[in-house]
Design brief:
It contains 13 helices and 20 strands. By secondary structure, it is α+β, with helices and mostly antiparallel strands. It binds glycine and manganese (II) ion (2 copies).
Length: about 450
């Protein structure tokens, strides 16, 4: 049976959390790129986490109120030679019972006929509205029919609930096997960053570097990139999601690379490094780089069990703002600058996010008014930056920026595991000290 990641244990935990409710978790579908060409398949992360099944157009049911041996039902594309010759192998109905620990399997085409029966006896339906239009229309039709009959037979799932509460709190805490896989994704991603820095010289094109990095990911057996690689020379780095990656790399500019791989089982790395294209920082570049590095290191030091992502952000932000005040790029006290958001023309994003099967992984950052406490097994990025350009207006009362600072965009991003003993920087193979960036 294909269960290298403890999918069975996760399903059992999930079933327990559902209590008397039925969960409907759809797989992803193929997405059209243009005409009749499609993007590479990307499985839905919730579905993958529970099933380990990597085909499109399936639906998993979790039915804790039914007897053992009937609680995990999978609807899949049935085997069909005339379709498999075009699109590849399918496990089919019997295959998923034999190989994926499924209790009962059906053809996906049976879903409209069978779903109503499977939902009988559930206290609520756990399903995410708005993401799976084909499945949603079936679920809502059947739920509506149940509600219509409720007055007479007293038998319907009355609540429709999003899976976040049951599933995303599980995904936020990574198991040992998941941590190993993310460590591996980070290692490959970090090696690619080192390779790229070695190769860069003035006159190259951004996409040559993108090609090197992404080739390395594939050579190492990754599925591909975790997100669109950002390879941004000079002022391009001030565009946070720059992905055009088609400019010349100029002598005297910095290069910002934000790139990470995604493994075959969808675990990801997410790393950013920034360094001088000609191997030597200018005075202004170095001054800003040192601030971002100090802010990032302070943020990483605050990744501690019992603290929060909010503390990491604020710790990093204070160092960053203090440094910008010292350079004369901001004016005022650190606290008031932060309180009034007066730094946001130079630093406009948060300092990090959860990392897992999704690059911006699921899991709450706050529980009501309280920030989520960091616990061993959580993984987050720490990625402060400074971006100096004319794109945003300087807030009233803040100093105008002299041209010598403009066109400098810097971000430093690592992936950090919360451990009982302190932070583990999973991406530490990628260098980041000033000396290393100049070598
Ligand atoms: N690469 C996406 C991010 O850093 O959040
Ligand atoms: Mn990130
Ligand atoms: Mn990133």
């Amino acid at each position: 049976m294909i269960d290298s990641h403890g999918f069975k244990q996760r399903r059992e935990d999930f079933l327990t959390r559902l209590e008397g409710k039925a969960a409907i978790i759809p797989a992803a579908s193929m997405v059209t790129h243009h005409a009749d060409c499609e993007y590479p398949f990307r499985q839905d992360s919730d579905f993958w986490y529970l099933t380990g099944f990597d085909e499109p157009d399936a639906v998993a049911l979790f039915l804790p109120f039914r007897p053992e041996g009937e609680r995990y039902v999978l609807f899949v594309l049935p085997k069909k030679e005339t379709e498999e010759i075009w699109n590849g192998f399918r496990w089919g109905v019997q295959g998923v019972v034999d190989q994926f620990g499924v209790d009962i399997a059906h053809s996906i085409y049976e879903l409209p006929n069978l779903l109503s029966e499977y939902l009988q006896g559930s206290e609520g339906i756990v399903f995410r509205i708005g993401k799976h239009p084909k499945v949603e229309s079936i679920v809502l039709k059947i739920w509506n029919e149940q509600l219509d009959k409720y007055q007479r037979n007293g038998n319907a799932a009355l609540d429709l609930i999003a899976p976040c509460k049951f599933l995303h709190s599980m995904r936020l805490l990574k198991g040992d096997d998941e941590i190993d896989r993310i460590r591996q994704a980070c290692q490959i991603s970090a090696e690619a960053h080192e390779l790229a820095r070695d190769a860069v010289c003035p006159g190259m094109n951004e996409r040559q570097i993108q090609g090197l990095i992404e080739q390395y990911f594939l050579e190492k057996g990754a599925r591909g990139t975790a997100y669109n690689s950002i390879v941004a020379g000079g002022d391009n780095a001030c565009v946070l999601h720059y992905t055009a990656n088609n400019d010349l790399l100029h002598d005297g500019d910095l290069l910002l690379i934000d790139a990470g791989c995604s493994l075959v089982d969808y675990y990801n790395g997410d790393i950013t490094r920034t360094f001088p294209i000609n191997g030597k920082f200018t005075g202004e570049q170095k001054a800003l780089y040192e601030i971002v590095l100090a802010a990032q290191e302070a943020g990483i030091s605050s990744v501690k069990s019992g603290l929060s992502a909010e503390v990491v952000h604020l710790t990093s932000l204070k160092v960053l703002v203090e440094g910008l005040v010292q350079l004369g790029l901001l004016k005022g006290t650190v606290d008031s600058l932060i309180e009034q958001d007066s730094y946001r023309h130079l630093y406009m994003h948060r300092t990090g996010h959860w990392l897992g099967l999704d690059v911006h992984d699921v899991g709450a950052y706050r529980l009501g008014e309280y920030p989520m406490e960091l616990q061993p097994g959580m993984i987050l990025t720490v990625e402060p930056g400074i971006y100096v350009s004319d794109r945003l207006p300087v807030p009233e009362g803040q100093p105008e920026i002299s041209d010598r600072w403009k066109g400098i965009g810097i971000r430093i991003e690592d992936d950090v595991l919360v451990c009982a003993k302190g932070p583990e920087v999973m991406s530490s193979f990628a260098m980041k000290s000033v000396n290393e960036m100049e070598s």
